[in-house]
Amino acid sequence: MSDVLSVQRLIPSPPEPIFDLLADPAGHADIDGGGTVKGARSGGRRLAVGDRFGMDMHLGVAYSTRNTVIELDENRRIAWQTTASGPLGTLLGGRVWRYVLEPVEGGTLVTESWDLSQERWTSKPFVKATMTSSTRANMERTLERIAELVAGPSAH
């Protein structure tokens, strides 16, 4: 695997409601196809470049992440970099979650990417080896959930 894993889905919706979901951390638990996001520590606000937001997570054990918005083009692109909270953040994390929304005939082509190019050297080999296949499936479910939320259950 290269350092970037991407999945795409055509969602029968304009980009605005899709972007609204992505730009508010409070809704991330609703769209998370992996079921690891349990809640936002700072949801209910629209994100901007440079904003930081925390997430309560659970994958075998409870933990939290610290995320920084590093890219934002309204209704077109948003990306945040995720690290572990606290002292572990110097050793774990650095991956980037990116969503690109492209208006096309029939709706919006949404590309979700899991970018490990900036993952800490201490965690990158482990993350690539253990999480790649499940992450692809989880990303596909995330895009399915987004489609259901903005276009209804018939958007499959």
Tally of separate helices: 3
- Bin the strand percentage: 35-45%
Strand order of the largest sheet: 1-7-6-5-4-3-2
Radius of gyration, rounded? 15 Å
Task: Kindly report the average pLDDT value.
Answer: 87
Poorly predicted sequence stretches spanning 5 or more consecutive residues: none
Shape: globular
State the helicity in percent bands. Answer: 25-40%
- How many strands in all? 7
Give the terminus-to-terminus CA distance: 28 Å
Order of helices and strands: EHHEEEEEEH
Structural class: alpha+beta
Structure at a glance:
Helices cover 26% and strands 40% of the residues.
What report would you give on this structure?
It is a single chain. By secondary structure, the chain is α+β, with helices and mostly antiparallel strands. Helices cover 26% and strands 40% of the residues. The chain has three helices and seven strands; from the N terminus they run βααββββββα. It has a seven-stranded antiparallel β-sheet. A hairpin with an 8-residue loop joins strand 5 and strand 6. The protein is globular. The mean pLDDT is 87.
